[in-house]
Specification:
mainly alpha, repressor, 91 residues, Arc Repressor Mutant, subunit A, globular
C-alpha cells in the first residue's frame, strides 16, 4: 500500500504547477480516461480509500470524484435500461 501512495504522491508533485488550471473547469481528457478506466475496470461503487487513490492519480477538478462517479453510475444504469437511482422494491 505504501508503494502505491508513494507513486501517487510523486504524480501529485509533478502536477503541482497545473492544479489551478485543472480545478477551474471540469475534468481534462486525461482525467476522464483515468476515471472511466476505474469505473469500468475497478469498481462502479468505489469506497473512500479507492476514491482517495483515484483523486491522487487523476488530480483535482471541479465536481470531484464522488460526484463524477454518482453521475456516471446514473448514466450507466440508464444505458442498461435500469432506473438512474436505486429505489426500494415497492417503487
Amino acid at each position: 500500500m505504501l508503494i502505491f501512495l508513494g507513486c501517487y504522491r510523486r504524480r501529485l508533485e509533478e502536477r503541482a504547477g497545473t492544479m489551478s488550471a485543472e480545478t477551474a473547469s471540469g475534468p481534462t481528457e486525461d482525467q476522464v480516461e483515468i476515471l472511466e478506466y476505474n469505473f469500468n475496470k475497478v469498481d462502479k461503487h468505489p469506497d473512500s480509500t479507492t476514491l482517495c487513490l483515484i483523486a491522487a492519480e487523476a488530480g483535482p477538478f471541479r465536481g470531484g470524484d464522488p460526484k463524477w462517479f454518482k453521475q456516471r453510475l446514473a448514466k450507466w444504469r440508464r444505458s442498461e435500461g435500469l432506473p438512474s437511482e436505486c429505489r426500494s422494491v415497492t417503487d
